[in-house]
């Protein structure tokens, strides 16, 4: 595996993760309600028997650091996975779209519900499914573009 391509995929994934994190935090501030990531983190804590929080309260700085730090680590891991599972000659559009949709399906349709930290995606409303799909498509495209950009150096 090309080290620069790996670095680019990680950078692309992290950049997309940062953008999505910014949107989620802005949404919290605008709505006064915790983001979906905060709900996931709190559900995971409850499943593990850890401290119980007021699920309606906005996350404080420490909790926000854990939530967003975990989200960015997942973005980095996904970027590295992209570099490992795709060919260096893969097209940015085709591989980015396929990877983004695969990552979305894995996390929202399979892993989250199996872990018991989120309701199955098929129970979500169409607007939520559309938003998740768009976010993950953009994530996949940013990851693929980062991999391609860095591999050309």
From TrEMBL:
Keywords: Membrane, Transmembrane, Transmembrane helix. The chain crosses the membrane at residues 6-26, 97-117, 129-150. It comes from the Bacteria. This is DUF1440 domain-containing protein. It comes from Aureimonas phyllosphaerae.
């Amino acid at each position: 595996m090309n080290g620069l391509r790996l670095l680019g995929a990680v950078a692309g994934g992290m950049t997309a993760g940062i953008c999505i994190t910014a949107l989620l935090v802005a949404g919290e501030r605008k709505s006064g309600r915790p983001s979906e990531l905060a709900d996931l983190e709190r559900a995971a804590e409850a499943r593990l028997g850890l401290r119980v929080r007021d699920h309606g309260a906005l996350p404080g700085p420490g909790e926000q650091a854990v939530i967003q730090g975990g989200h960015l680590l997942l973005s980095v891991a996904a970027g590295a996975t992209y570099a490992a599972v795709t060919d260096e000659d893969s097209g940015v559009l085709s591989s980015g779209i396929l990877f983004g949709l695969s990552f979305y399906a894995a996390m929202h349709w399979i892993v989250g519900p199996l872990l018991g930290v989120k309701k199955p995606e098929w129970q979500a409303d169409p607007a939520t499914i559309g938003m998740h799909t768009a976010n993950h498509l953009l994530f996949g495209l940013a990851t693929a573009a980062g991999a391609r950009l860095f591999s050309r150096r």
